[in-house]
Amino acid sequence: MTHIEKAKLLKLLYQHRAMGFEYFNEYRPLAQESPIALPQNLSELQKAVSACHLCALAKSRKNVVFGAGNLNATLMFIGDNPGVSEDESGEIFMGRAGELLTKIIENVLMLKREDVYIANIIKCKTPENRVPTPEEVATCKPYLMQQIQTINPRIIVALGSTSFHHLTGEYDTPIDKIRGSVLNFGQAKLIPTLHPSFLLRNPSAKKEVYADMLKVRSML
Ligand code: SF4
User: Fold this and answer.
1) Taking the model in full, what pTM does it have?
2) Cα–chain-centroid distance for residue 197?
3) 126 C-alpha vs ligand 1 centroid, how far in Å?
4) How many Å apart are CA 11 and CA 9, to the nearest integer?
5) 3 neighbors 37 (Cβ within 8 angstroms)
6) For ligand 1, atom 6: residue with the closest CA
7) Helix, strand or coil for residue 39?
8) For the domain bounded by 38-219, which CATH number is listed?
9) Per-residue pLDDT tens for 150-185?
10) Which candidate, 65, 51, 135, places its Cα nearest to that of 98?
């Protein structure tokens, strides 16, 4: 916790004591719309996130997986949570799913992987690669939102349902019904598609992602 965050927390505690409260069960400043300003500079933000212990996933992670790519990218991919190989290396989208994403970027979008920026909804691996809980996402998501704000991409591709649901709050919309749609997301356009890990298990769905990526290519 930074000096400013500590000072703000102390002030809040004093205010609540003045109102008659004796103690707090829990205080998670990043779980709500955080009033605490995160660093806008991404290397400073990365340093802060590397030391983050705001949720229980910090206990079991080996490395924080911050994200990587072009800081001026027009196109940003957002996945769900780091897997085993990402946790081992600290690098985003490694392993077979990462190889497939790289092929999609190179062979369909005709870009290099370094041309785009890639991040996840949360920065630490979940046990058994389970879907992150809403609380974990709420705690971690301000980091991603700061990355989006700083990079300011024109197009965001949400990879898979976890990414789409937590970016938009459209929890009742299945990814297979919405994929390929062009949605408004602040100043950017958001296009949901299927996650590369899903494609590895369901190769017949590759044609759908191919169609979605052709749409992205036409918008670049
Ligand atoms: S998942 Fe996010 S909020 Fe939780 S410890 Fe990791 S960086 Fe912090």
Assistant:
1) 0.83
2) 16
3) 10
4) 5
5) no
6) 124
7) coil
8) 3.40.470.10
9) 999 999 999 999 999 999 999 999 999 999 999 999
10) 65
